[in-house]
Amino acid sequence: MRAFLTEQPETFPWSKHLSSDLAPDKPYPLSAHKFSDNTHFGMRQLFLRTATHGTARKYVNKTVYNYNRRKLNIGGKTGSLDGLDPKGRYDWFAGFAQSKEEPNKSVVIVVMQVHDNLRTLPATGVAGVMINHWAKEYLP
Length: 140
Description:
Order of helices and strands: HEEHHHEEEH
Strand content: 25-35%
Number of domains: 1
Oligomer: single chain
């Protein structure tokens, strides 16, 4: 997701905020090539449309405050399947939120849940709550 957001080659997940035991503190490239400009454009449109017109729309609209939705480009990909180990409904969202005014301010969020008999807030809804928290902390 980060590679499509930044239009750079893929990197191993990293964070300057975590200890080096958990993740590298700087980007570590997984490959030397980046996707073509057409691929970046097409995938970005797919992710944005998923949040505005597709499978993520309902919970992005329910959980991301209107105030934040106006300031952000939100995109992502949803998915689900029934699994056996552990048994349950697997539900995920991988996406991003990016400031419209300052595109260098962005966050990548990946949520995966396994629901048993009781289904809680879907992964897209959890991501929406996280987007609100991030926006409150990092956007004016």
